[in-house]
Structures are given as C-alpha cells and as structure tokens.
C-alpha cells in the first residue's frame, strides 16, 4: 500500500489516482472514517481529468494506530508531509466535517504555492463546543456523551451514528441505504479506538477562528440545513464571514452526510467552483 512516513515514524496511507501532471484534488475525511468515504467524489473527478488523492488520518483506516498526535497541529503537519512527498502544487483541498477543520488548519499554514482553492463540507469550523465566546455551540456534555458511547461499545456506537443522524436516516420518509451504514461501520472499525476517542476533543474544541482569517485562497463552504452532527447556524455562516474570499452554498434539508446521500447535487457544485 502506498504510504509516506512522517518525522515521528507514522505511516500515512494514501490513494493517488490519475495523471501526475493533472490538477490535484486532496480529500480529507471525517471522523471516524477513512479515505474510502471519498470513493464517489474521487471517481467523479477522476473521470473529469483531475488527479485525486485521499489519505487516512493517523489512527484511522490503514494509517498507523499511533498513541499520540491526535490533534489538529499534528493532523495538519501530516498533510504538509504528504504534500511535500508528492510535490503538490496549487492543489485543491476538500474536507468533510473533521476533515474540513483539518483543511482549514493546514491551508492557513501551507507553504506558498501548495494550495490553489479549498472546499469545506459540513465542516466543524469555526468551533463546535459551547462557551462564553461561542454561545450557539453544543454543550460539552454532548461530546462527553460521544466519548462515553465509544468506550462502552464502539461497535454498536458505530452502527447507531450512521443509522441515525449522520445521513438523516432517522428522519420521516428517509430513503435508507444499508450499504452506506455498513460501509460507515467498516471504515470506523478499521481505526484505533484511542485515536477516535482523542479526535472527539480535536474536532469539538479546536478554535479555527484565526486560521479562517489567515486564509487567502478562495474557499467554498457547503453545508446542509438539516445537519444533525454539525449544526448549520453555528458553523458555515460564521465560518464564511471570517474568510477573506469565502462563498457559502447552503443545501436546504440535506444531512451531514450529503456527500454520500446527494452526490448528484454536491459534486457538480464543487466542479463549478474548481473551474470558476
């Protein structure tokens, strides 16, 4: 399997499809998944002449199940190492959920010329947890509940999340895909329980405000209004206000996992942004 090795010896698995001289798109997955969650988008953009790349975050998927480094600084450093190893120039970076936070944290620190554009989808920035400065956030009890459920029975927890709020399958009249549920579980159970546990703090408590302010490249912010994982009102509209060159695209009634439930809607909008 193709991997790069970071300075602390971690092996980061990645996929790299398409012509090496084509415009690269790098995909960053959500918690607790893997590069496989981007299969639809990778095939879509591969078929349109792009070079498509996706990696498994450390502790997730096929990457090393490390005992440390499960925070945004290290995640961003791992992405920088991947970009350096593959010598990516003017790359487009696309992140979903936790991966959206990873994109923002990386792009704010990337070497000049490495990043051309970015897209964040159902993403966690600016910050998820409720505080005096973020009164619209989710209480810490919500994230403590996630940690408790993971420790108690991770396998069942990783069935309950995709069966319910992640894809909106708990909504009346939802068209349920057992395949999506099973694939979510498969990806989640490939990763390390410790990495998944610690990543909850990373995606919920990291404040991306200053990162968003630093980013100069065009950024498309995509979010569904029925996102039950990262509530719309406290994320996308606030994030786009902090960006120098941000565009907000709102999807009425779509869930957190809209990349998988509605790729026919989302993919063309990303393509138009990349070509614009």
From TrEMBL:
UniProt entry keywords in alphabetical sequence: Hydrolase
Keyword Hydrolase in annotation: yes
GO molecular function: hydrolase activity
Transmembrane segments: none
Classification via InterPro entries: AB_hydrolase (IPR050471), AB_hydrolase_1 (IPR000073), AB_hydrolase_fold (IPR029058), Epox_hydrolase-like (IPR000639)
Domain AB hydrolase-1, first and last residues per copy: 24-261
Pfam families: Abhydrolase_1
Keyword Hydrolase attached: yes
Superkingdom classification of source: Bacteria
PANTHER family assigned: HYDROLASE, ALPHA/BETA FOLD FAMILY PROTEIN (PTHR43433), NON-HEME CHLOROPEROXIDASE (PTHR43433:SF3)
Family (UniProt): Belongs to the AB hydrolase superfamily. Bacterial non-heme haloperoxidase / perhydrolase family.
Protein name: Alpha/beta hydrolase
Species: Rhizobium herbae
